Amino acid sequence: MNRVLDVYCRALSAICALLMAAMVVLVFGNVVLRYAFSTGWLISEEISRWMFVWMVFIGSIVALRENAHLGTDMVVVRLPAGVRRACTVVAQLIMLYISWLMLSGSWSQVEINAGTEAPVSGLPLSFLYFCGVVFAVSTLLILFYELWMNLSGRRDSSALMVQECADLEPPRSAASRD
Are residues 26 and 110 located together in one domain of the fold? Predict the structure, then answer.
């Protein structure tokens, strides 16, 4: 499962890179057309905005997998390993609940907007809201896997969703700085 998630996240990272490249082409091309030729692509702004939303949600999936979201660990790193593990499990359960809320809300928006078209492109607005569904399903899978790893004891308690903070490092002497 770990390998499957790694391959999935590498594919998502590649999709993010492609979305970013397409956004650059659309926005830069539109700027050149406006200033050099007094014209532009009407669809450019709408499609680049949709690409940005998709890129943020896809990037959030990758960041979750890599434990790259911002967090404060100054309390958790000072706890004993068992308490740290319990805090991690509670945090993962809360994130699972929030992901479920995101899934149900996003799916509702997909259904509500199934018949609504975007003003410029004419694409169904449900496609824009579907990124929330992709995000929620992906995070649910990742979080269930991580929860299973934590509860089964297959994950080292010192590596649970936190990284050591810089203020816990022992101070270096003046001689060791040189």
Answer: no
pTM for the model stands at: 0.82
- CA 88 to chain CA mean position, Å: 19
User: What is the maximum span of the chain, computed from C-alpha positions, in angstroms?
Assistant: 70
Alpha carbon 59 to chain centroid distance?
A: 4
- Considering the domain architecture, whether residues 61 and 94 belong to the same structural domain is answered as no
Three-point CA angle 130, 132, 133, nearest 5°: 65
Among candidate residues 19, 40, 67, the one where a domain is terminated: 67
Same domain, 117 and 132: yes
Contact (Cβ atoms closer than 8 angstroms) between residue 63 and residue 52 = no
What are the residues whose beta carbons fall under 8 Å from the beta carbon of 55, sequence distance 6 or more? 16, 19, 20, 23
- pLDDT per position as a tens digit, 19-71: 999 999 999 999 999 999 988 888 999 999 999 999 999 999 999 998 887 77
**Cα 56 from Cα 64, distance rounded (Å):** 12
Q: Which domain holds residue 30?
A: 1-67
SS3 104: helix
What is the distance between the alpha carbons of residues 154 and 70, in angstroms, rounded to a whole number?
Answer: 24
